[in-house]
Each structure stands twice: as structure tokens, then as C-alpha cells.
Write a structure and sequence with these properties.
- The structure is a homodimer.
- Chain A is an alpha/beta fold and about 350 residues long.
- Helices cover about 40% and strands about 15% of the residues of chain A.
- Chain A has 13 helices and 13 strands.
- In chain A, strands 2-8-7-6-5-3-4 form a seven-stranded mixed sheet, sandwiched between helices. In chain A, strands 9-10-13-12 form a four-stranded antiparallel sheet.
- Chain A is globular and about 70 Å long.
- Chain A starts with 10 loop residues before the first helix and ends with a helix.
- At the A-B interface, strand 1, helix 4, helix 5, helix 8 and helix 10 of A face strand 1, helix 4, helix 5, helix 8 and helix 10 of B.
- Strand 11 of chain A pairs parallel with strand 1 of chain B, so a sheet runs across the interface.
């Protein structure tokens, strides 16, 4: 057995030269009685109790970071907040550039953002079990030296977690950064990659509040080594997270009981939905560790349209995974309406 | 006299090739009874009346756009919304690339963002009246062909509007885009550049709610030709503006009376503050069309620290404009405290 080698990325080689020489924008909070430094209006709109609408947000989101740090079991300096995970992906690719490697099918934004920023993308198809094609990925890593590898686990739209062992091998083999997007981790029975953070500095983890009842707020978190986050922070817009989202995300993260209840209810419904789908002839659902279920039918286009005719909107995955549809786990009543409608049209 | 030539930019030459071939991310709203397509939680947090925290924001911000369109006298298709103007600058530079030209001193984010994105910047110092150095800018435009020219008018931190005639000449001479950032226009007695939009397709105008009482929300607007905005829209993150900011910005824009009252109060105080500054020996304020005043003292560092000691925080412009400080117009009481403190320490 080979000993575990802690991977320390060479930041100077990884960061784009124009970013490396930048300094982060400093917007320090200086205590004072009369604040006339930031071209704010002295008058706000009394729309939200406790929020001064006329003041700029805390540029560092310090209170939110400290609450999330406790939740995640890391230090606030290991966290960067984003206007959704989308923005964090944007910043990661701006900071490190390409090539950007990700398996397919997966969350579409890795590729969309890399292309918007003019960076090379490398797509490696998943294997037949929707797991990572380790051999292919390792050979591409060796040959193309991607700066960033994005792994959504649990993966959207397939619903499964990737093999933890394979993810670890990719982290070990990669001289670039491996970003594990754990947007759906709250619904998973597996442990996630966070325990590896202390041993592998080239591992970053993304989390979001969008799947657990707060999509409206756009709050994403990037967790990782402080030296790496400091580089990403240089390309971050100083006021990227508005005050309302900061305040409400903080409040929600403190309300652990409610969050747990939401997650438990969704997991329970997911398993019921899976059993329901399994019972419909001509429907093949795939096991899910997320808050949605991918399933196969004979004619995805037809099923999609017929469901929409009955008022049920789900995602048609045709063109991404042949003959597949993806349904989000809804409230019990919604799931029943969906199952009933699907049973009638298949 | 030469006839006015409507400037139609050649989009294919302006847009970066990787962006030109992209398609905008489509997140259409499809009417349905049961919405199970977006991996949202069926359960939200009842924090805000009328806002479903569990649902993603409207990706197009259609209601907000239509309210702002009425306000600005343009069509909603001539508007792009941003998570603050900062984000719109990011998107503009991502879409068109550099060189990026701007006068100095000016709002720092044009340069910061261009550098973060690895694009060349060209800085042309303002003349002695803080106006645009037309001769130099025109010669640079001819030689370096900047893709983007950013002009903040009224300008931060000098407070003056640039000569409208000079701006027009720059628009006419430029084969790239000229972005006039009118963040401070609500406080100006001048007319602004919006009337030129219909004749010059290479003119874009930025507005923000950050200076008029809503900095906390991060809402910026880009106004311009639809074909150009369509290109910028390709690099926009689909859910860049959260639901709360959309809703509250819409509400505030409808409350014209309140907005007018805030602006009037600030302008009145600015003029009073200017007179107060003029009366202090050793202080030379510059006229302002914005919600702040730049002023010269003998020793800016010393004045800055002495004011802070008395609890008054303003902006030290040392290193940007020699021996200058910038004070934001506050509420009457705040301005009095500032004037009193300054009088005591000068």
C-alpha cells in the first residue's frame, strides 16, 4: 500500500499571471459615528426590519461566514461566499483558467461558464453505472493537465454519488484543483468529501442553499484552503452578496431544526417517489442520493409533453441522456399528482 | 458642419469569438400547476411575505425590467439587470475584452475588473478642470482601438459631469462601445446621455439604485441597443439577481415620490455642505453634480485621521488626487457634525 501523499498545489503555477499579481479589493469596516465615506444615501427604504437598505452589504459577509463555518466545521477563513454557486464557478475559472475538466452528463454551468470565459473544456463521459470513468480521466489529467476538475456529487442529473475512492484518486493525480460540488449532499446517505479537506489542499468543496428552501436568495459557499481562496477572492466583486441574502441565510443556517425537517421530508418523499415510479410499467427510475430522480421511459418527448398537458412540469433530458426525464421531489401531494399523471400517459 | 453620423458598431468584430458563438442560457417560464423541473425544495422559509424563498428568481427579471423601462423611457429589451453595476462591468469586459479605456481618476472598478479578467487597460488622465482630455483620448482611440470606453459622469471622485460635447465626440470617434456610467446622474442638474441612445448604437448607459437608498440590494441596470445586450446576456449567469432585490427594487421604482424626496434632500444638503466647506479656511471644495464633494486641504492624511478621531469617516483620496478628501452628503445632522469637526481640526 502506498502512503497517503498530501497534495499541496503550486499556487504560482496554477493562478493566471494577471490574477497572481493583483491585490484583493479591501473594503475594511472602520468603526465611526458618522459614516460619509461610501457615497451611500443617508436615507433608506424601510422595507425590511433590521436591514439598512441605504448601506452597502458587508463585503466579507463575516457574520454569514462565521455561522456557516460552525455548520461546516471549518474556519471562516476557509470559506468564500458567492451569489449562488454559479458565481463561484465563474470566479474559479477566472482565477485559474482552463483546461476545465468535468464528466458528462453533469450540471451544465461548468461548461457554459468555461466557454463564456473562453477557456478550453474537456468532457469525459460517465461509465455505464453513471460513475466516473477513472481510467479515462486519469489519462486526460496526465496529458492535458486541467487547472480545474468539477465533480458534482451527488451528480445532477443522474442522482448518484460518484465513488469516493475514484474521487480520491483524481484528487491525488491532479496537479490542478478538484472542485467537488456538493449541492445535493444534504440529501445523500454518503459522507461527502469534506473529511478530505485537511489532507488535500487541492480539494475545494461547493455547497449551496438553493436546494434546501432558499433558491430565491442565491447563496453559495466555497470551502477550501485559505491560500487558494485568497487568490479567488482577488477576482470577486467586493459586494457580491446583497445584505438581505446575507441576513436571511444567516437566520436559516441558525434554524437547524427547520433545515433538518425539510431535508428529512424530502428524503422520505424521494424514496416513496422512487417506489411509485418502480411500479409503473415502462418506467425505469435510477436510484437517487439527491432531491430529484432520473427515470427512463420509451419516448421522453412524448411523456414530457403529455405530463405538461396535465399541468405537471418536469425536465426532459433528451439530448443529454437518451429517453430520460428528471423529476424534482415535490411535496407529497405534488408527487402523487405527478405519479398519477405519469401512470395515465405511459 | 459635418452631418451627424449614426454609429452602428460591427458586433461581429467587437464580440470575443468564444462569446459570439455562444447561445444565451434559456430559462423559460413554462406555465404549470405542479413545478418539478428545477430541483427546488417544495418547502421554503416564510421569511418574506410574497416571496417564495424555495423558488429560483425570475432569470430575466421581467417585472423589474418593465418598471425600470417605463422610468427610463426605453423598451424592456433595451435593459439588462445586474447584481450591482459592478457585475455589468464584469460582463461587458467578458463579452468584448480589451483594451479598456477610462480616464483617471475615476471609479476604480473599471480597472480592477479589467485586470482581473486579464485585459489591457489604458488610463488617460483628466485635464486640470477634471474634464476629459479629448485630444489624448481621440488619439488613443485611433491608435489602440479600445473595445470599451468607460466614462463615469458625474465622475467619482471628482464630482463633475464631463462635457457632453466631448463625450459625443468620443462616441463618434469610437468603433468600440462607450459606456457612460450615470450612477450619480440623479443628483445632477445636467441632462445626461440617455437622449443620445437612439442615434448611437455604440453608446451604453449604466444606472444603479445604490446611490439612492438601496445599496444593500445590489441592483444595476445597463441600457443600450438590443443586439449588443443580447451578446452581453450570453455571459450573464442565469439567476444573477436574487428574488428579494428584484421585488424590492420594483417596489422602490414605483414609489417615485419617495425617490424624488430623497434625491431633493440630498441635493439641497450637498449645496449647503458646499457652502459650509467654502467657509472653512484652508479648505477648497470642488463643485459637485453628485452625492459627494471632493475637497482639498493642506494635509489630507492628517485631516483624515483627525476626523476619524472625532468619529467622522470620510474617504482619503491621497494617492488618487493629491491632498484631497471625498465626503459623502449625509443627513443634515451628520453634515453638521462633519463640518464642525473639520472646522476644529483644520
Amino acid at each position: 500500500m502506498t502512503p497517503t501523499i498530501t497534495r499541496r498545489p503550486d499556487i504560482k503555477k496554477l493562478v493566471r499571471p494577471n490574477v497572481l499579481k493583483l491585490k484583493a479589493y479591501e473594503a475594511k469596516e472602520i468603526p465611526c459615528k458618522v459614516k460619509l465615506d461610501a457615497n451611500e444615501s443617508p436615507y433608506g427604504y424601510g422595507y425590511l426590519k433590521g436591514i439598512k437598505t441605504n448601506r452597502y452589504p458587508d463585503p466579507q459577509a463575516n457574520r454569514l461566514k462565521s455561522v456557516f463555518a460552525k455548520f461546516a466545521g471549518v474556519s471562516p477563513s476557509n470559506i468564500l461566499t458567492g451569489n449562488g454557486s454559479d458565481e463561484l464557478i465563474y470566479y474559479l475559472i477566472t482565477t485559474f483558467g482552463g483546461p476545465v475538466l468535468y464528466p458528462t452528463p453533469t450540471f451544465s454551468m461548468y461548461g457554459i461558464i468555461a466557454k463564456a470565459l473562453g477557456e478550453k473544456t474537456i468532457e469525459v463521459p460517465l461509465d455505464k453505472e453513471f460513475d466516473l470513468d477513472l481510467k479515462k480521466i486519469l489519462s486526460v489529467i496526465k496529458k492535458e493537465k486541467p487547472k480545474l476538475v468539477f465533480l458534482s456529487s451527488p451528480n445532477n442529473p443522474t442522482g448518484n454519488c460518484f465513488s469516493a475512492e475514484r474521487i480520491l484518486k483524481i484528487i491525488k493525480a491532479s496537479k490542478g484543483l478538484v472542485v467537488v460540488d456538493e449541492a445535493y449532499q444534504p440529501f445523500s446517505s454518503e459522507r461527502g468529501m469534506a473529511p478530505l479537506l485537511m489532507d488535500y489542499e487541492n480539494l475545494l468543496i461547493m455547497r449551496t442553499l438553493s436546494k434546501v428552501g432558499l433558491a430565491a436568495l442565491r447563496v453559495g459557499f466555497l470551502i477550501g484552503d485559505e491560500k487558494i481562496l485568497n487568490e479567488v477572492n482577488k477576482v470577486r466583486l467586493p459586494f457580491n452578496l446583497n445584505s438581505v441574502s446575507q441576513a436571511l441565510a444567516e437566520k436559516a443556517l441558525k434554524d437547524r431544526k427547520k433545515a433538518r425537517a425539510i431535508i428529512r421530508a424530502i428524503v422520505r418523499e424521494r424514496d416513496r417517489l422512487y417506489r411509485g415510479l418502480s411500479k409503473i410499467k415502462g418506467v425505469r427510475p435510477y436510484p437517487s442520493e439527491a432531491n430529484f430522480i432520473l427515470f427512463k421511459v420509451k419516448d421522453a418527448d412524448k411523456a414530457y409533453s403529455a405530463l405538461l398537458n396535465k399541468g405537471v412540469l418536469i425536465r426532459n433530458m433528451k439530448g443529454v441522456i437518451d429517453s430520460c426525464l428528471r423529476v424534482t421531489v415535490g411535496a407529497p401531494k405534488e408527487n402523487e399528482m405527478f405519479l398519477k399523471a405519469l401512470g395515465e400517459i405511459i
